[in-house]
Write a structure and sequence with these properties.
The protein has 736 residues and is an alpha/beta fold. It has a domain of 190 residues: 3-Layer(aba) Sandwich (Rossmann fold), CATH 3.40.50.300. Helix content is 63%, strand content 12%. The chain has 14 helices and 15 strands. A 6-stranded antiparallel beta sheet has the order 2-1-4-5-6-7. A hairpin with an 8-residue loop joins β1 and β2. The longest helix has 169 residues. The protein is elongated. The mean pLDDT is 80.
Length: 736
């Protein structure tokens, strides 16, 4: 297993992607450059990607300072990323890959990401992967000048840290510190739990009495509840039975009311129809009465007309008789004037009118004679010559004229009499059958009217009776509805009481089994139970649960006490065991280290001896570490008595001895040779060559002789202020 590449991007002074490749044939790689160019930043990158989180070890104020902060010419970056790639052909890393890449990335916001072969993971996964490979925490894969200074320090605790890391007892110390903290916590918990036990025990005594009262209260309350629920169920049953009867009666009453209403409506409709028929009958009677009156008027008019015609006929017949008698008298007179025996017309008796006419004629003749004489006419009109004849003729003519008139009158009267007789026949009085039929029809309608009025009265009386019955039914319905409302109110009261006191609905009540047999006894027991409940009050009903909980808590506390006592003893035993393991491991490591250190010391000092021992009279894990050396040909000396170069070389010997005890696939040496002179540098470089046979060595140095042994050199330069770049040179390929 060896390191193949180290890639940096955005880490400290390396903003650009920088890849440092390590050839497996180049066992020693040198990193060189002037002070301040960023050589040690490469070492910090290795520390960081391997899991270092201590800003002091990374030489920064805070972890976000490892991100490239920018320069006057370049902007700051938002992330830093370092990747180490290993050749795992030997399978030393416990993953099924021949090449393993470990990458760590951090952002300026503070988030970090970890990857193994591009698969995101946790920091713990990386640390677990590197366990037992010599690259984990506390290993000597990275040796700095500070570790050399710590070995050379006169302070025993600083020197001791180096050897404890080599011995690997830090894990024991860490576990011991953790165990001691747990022990302190256990002791504190024991005190607290004991106090808590006393408190809970005292409280438990009070709760026990409260729980007893609460149990009695609950028992009585449950009994009262059972009785009240049973009584309520019984009352509800009777109420439901009563409600059913009321509902049935109400349904029947409503049905009867509907029937009465229907009958009333039917009778009202029948009465309305009869009234309509009555109006029709009245109308028909009025029509028939009008027809009867008209018929009576017609008969009366016909009778009067007949009487008038008969009277006219009688008068005309009488007049005809008179005229007929007159014509007979005139005929006799005419015959008398025409008879020869009658010589004197004066003897003929004329009517007074005829005599008047004759006299008028004579006067007319006399007038005419006078008129003629007035006009000079000498004609003398005289009736004297034929006066008798003229008189006879005149009388005859007058009689004939009068007779003609009388005959004409008779003819006229006969015509009138005939016409009147025809009119009399035409206006003959008809029979009274129509009048009788109208009278009979009116009588029938009047009978129907009386019958209809009687039926209307009967229907109206029936309707009034049905209306009264309907009002009575409505009153019964209202009474039943009030009774039902009362029943519902009783049910509601029972339901509200059950819900308020027992959180039980009426529907839930139906599912409850059990019912009281004796109502009076149940009520008495309920009253007694409630009286006892009032005596027990106030009651802490939570005391039962709290008592059980406190009892369980006390049991748990007692178990905790037992566990804590056992844990305390276990922790004490663990601390003793850890101390023993740490002491054993430390002593074994120190013995092994002393032997190896003596060998390495002899190589670096061309002979001589060295030993590492613990100060006597002190526990092994607390004793100071004493380092004594005896260079070739000299006496045993402590480190402070050596020269500066000898002390540094001695410290280097110790560090290489530690690496032999805890080997690593590669080793970074950061200016470890800074204090060595030319003579010691040769021995230092020789041991580096020997050591590189089994471990990759990467040295950061300013020493030319150290550079000379390197197979490959990377130069770090800072062409632009604040920005580092790497230049490589493979010296193994350069001819000697």
């Amino acid at each position: 297993m060896f390191l193949k590449t180290l890639s940096l991007r955005g880490f400290k002074t390396f903003p650009d992607q920088t890849d440092i490749e390590f050839d497996p044939d180049s066992r020693i790689t040198g990193i060189v450059g002037p002070n301040g160019c960023g050589k040690s930043n490469v070492l910090d990158a290795v520390r960081w990607v391997l899991g270092e989180d201590n800003p002091r070890m990374l030489r920064v104020g805070s972890l976000d300072n490892i991100i490239f902060a920018g320069t006057a010419q370049r902007k700051p970056l938002s992330l830093a990323e370092v990747t180490m790639t290993f050749d795992n052909s030997s399978g030393r890393l416990p993953v099924p890959f021949t090449e393993v890449a470990i990458k760590r990335r951090t952002f300026r916001e503070g988030e970090s990401e970890f990857y193994i072969n591009k698969n995101q993971c946790r920091l713990k996964d990386i640390r677990d992967l590197l366990l037992d490979t010599g690259l984990g925490e506390g290993t000597y894969a990275i040796i700095t000048q500070g570790q050399v200074d710590a070995i050379l320090s006169s302070k025993g605790e600083e020197r001791r840290i180096v050897f404890e890391e080599a011995a690997g007892i830090n894990k024991y110390k860490t576990r011991k510190v953790a165990a001691e903290k747990k022990l302190i916590a256990a002791e504190q918990n024991l005190l607290r739990i004991n106090d808590l036990k006393i408190e809970v025990s005292e409280h438990l005594i009070i709760l026990e009495e409260q729980a007893r009262r609460a149990k009695e209260y609950l028992e009585i309350h449950n009994k009262v509840k059972e009785l009240e629920i049973g009584l309520s169920k019984k009352l509800l049953g009777s109420i439901l039975e009563k409600k059913q009867k009321l509902e049935e009666a109400l349904a029947q009453a409503r049905q009867q009311s509907q029937a009465k209403s229907a009958a009333e409506e039917k009778d009202f409709s029948a009465a309305a129809e009869l009234k309509k028929r009555l109006r029709e009958i009245e109308s028909q009677i009025d029509d028939l009465a009008a027809q009867l009156d008209s018929e009576k008027d017609r008969l009366r008019d016909a009778e009067l007309n007949r009487r008038f015609i008969e009277k006219d006929l009688q008068r005309e017949e009488e007049l005809l008789l008179s005229v007929s008698a007159k014509t007979n008298a005139l005929a006799a007179k005419i015959l008398a004037l025409q008879a020869p025996e009658i010589s004197d017309p004066s003897q003929v008796h004329l009517d007074e009118s005829l005599h008047l006419l004759v006299d008028q004629t004579r006067g007319l003749v006399s007038l005419l004679s006078s008129i003629m004489q007035f006009f000079g006419k000498e004609e003398n009109l005289s009736l004297a010559a034929s006066e008798a004849e003229a008189t006879r003729n005149l009388k005859l003519e007058l009689l004939n004229e009068e007779n003609r008139k009388a005959l004409a009158e008779m003819e006229r009267l006969n015509a009138l009499i005939g016409a009147h007789r025809q009119d009399l026949l035409a206006v003959s009085i008809p029979d009274d059958q129509r009048k009788a039929s109208l009278t009979e029809a009116i009588a029938q309608l009047k009978l129907e009217r009386e019958k209809t009025n009687t039926q209307i009265s009967e229907f109206e009386e029936k309707s009034r009776q049905e209306e009264q019955e309907e009002r009575e039914a409505a009153s019964i319905i209202a009474s039943l509805e009030v009774s039902l409302a009362k029943v519902d109110g009783e049910m509601l009261a029972i339901g509200e009481k059950l819900l308020a006191e027992y959180n039980l609905s009426l529907q839930d009540l139906e599912t409850v089994s059990g019912i009281v047999a004796n109502t009076g006894k149940a009520k008495s027991e309920i009253e007694e139970g409630k009286a006892r409940l009032r005596q027990l009050e106030p009651v802490n009903l939570l005391a039962i649960e709290e008592f059980d909980r406190s009892k369980e808590r006390l049991t748990f506390i007692e178990a905790q006490l037992t566990d804590l006592n056992a844990a305390r003893e276990n922790l004490r035993n663990l601390i003793v065991e850890l101390d023993a393991q740490a002491e054993t491991t430390f002593l074994q490591t120190m013995d092994q280290l002393s032997v190896i250190f003596s060998e390495v010391f002899g190589q670096l000092f061309n002979g001589g001896e060295a030993r590492i021992s613990l100060a006597p009279g002190q526990p092994a894990l607390e004793a100071e570490i004493e380092i004594s050396v005896r260079p070739n040909g000299r006496r045993w000396l402590p480190l402070p008595l050596l020269s500066g170069g000898e002390r540094s070389l001695c410290a280097v010997a110790i560090l290489f001895s530690l690496l032999k005890i805890r080997p690593s696939p590669f080793c970074f040496l950061d200016e470890v040779d800074a204090a060595l002179d030319e003579a010691n540098i040769g021995r230092y470089t020789n041991i580096l060559k020997d050591f590189s046979a089994n471990t990759q060595v990467i040295v950061i140095t300013h020493n030319k002789r150290t550079m000379a042994i390197a197979d490959n050199i990377y130069g770090v330069t800072m062409q632009d202020p604040g920005t580092s770049k790497v230049i490589s040179m493979k010296l193994a390929q350069v001819p000697a």
